[in-house]
Amino acid sequence: MAESEICLREEGSVLLVHPDYEGRVTFDWFRPEHWGASAQPVSSGGRGGAWFINTGCGYIVLRQYRRGGLVARISEQSYVFTREQDVRSVAEFRLLDHLVTLGLPVPKPVAAWYRKVSGLSYKAAIIIERLEDTTPLAELISVLDLADWENLGATVRRFHDAGVNHADLNCFNVLVRGSSYFLIDFDKGRIMPAKAAEKWKTGNLERFARSIRKVAGNSVLDRVWDSFMNGYNGSQSS
After folding, report:
1. Using an 8 Å Cβ cutoff, are 93 and 137 in contact?
2. Are strands 109-116 and 190-191 parallel, antiparallel or unpaired?
3. Angle in degrees, CA 88, 72, 209, rounded to 5
4. HEC profile for 52-83?
5. Catalytic residue, candidates 97, 148, 168, 185
6. C-alpha span between 66 and 92 (Å, rounded)
7. What domains, with CATH codes, occur in the chain?
8. pTM here?
9. What is d(CA 150, CA 168) in angstroms, rounded to the nearest whole number?
10. 161 an active-site residue?
11. What would the pLDDT profile of 9-61 be if each residue is shown by its tens digit?
């Protein structure tokens, strides 16, 4: 267990809470129906299973872990349990907490939950602080200028310089607030070993380029990519 978390266990469920939320978060926070009209489904990106919530003392995002592809036909929300530290909500909570301490632009984790549904599987969810006054990059691609793309490239480079491998870098997992950029959704993300081959960085960038192409087309990708890479390469450590 990381130092900056409180762990609660109740009838097969496990709850990790950030110390800043000690005494406030309960297991009920992970039930959308608990919030009534204060929980609004997130419509942008993803596979569903996420809500914007006004707690009355702050804004949060509740996200359930859901499978995609063919395996979802078998079990949309259950994952194989091996050990607690590998549970997806636990791993993402701890990674986000670490990235916050590094000063990287990510949402602060609030709490993580999981429950075993059998001896070999579990369901999970995570709560993070909502980054207010932000817009998904996917909705702004047509209005950002080339200087904006350079800034975004420099931001992504900060993560790579810290060894952060984002498993799904796409236009919906980048949020924009003015000239600031934030990365979200670090499910399956990880800190890479210092001696790891550089190909993981290339993989991140190629995935992001495919996302731009899918959302906006080849012409937009061709227009912005050099500026993005100029920003990315310009932030190299000497």
Report:
1. no
2. unpaired
3. 70
4. EEECCCCEEEEEECCCCCHHHHCCCCCEECCC
5. 168
6. 14
7. 6-129 (3.30.200), 135-234 (1.10.510.10)
8. 0.91
9. 20
10. no
11. 998 899 999 999 999 999 999 999 999 999 999 976 655 589 999 999 899 99
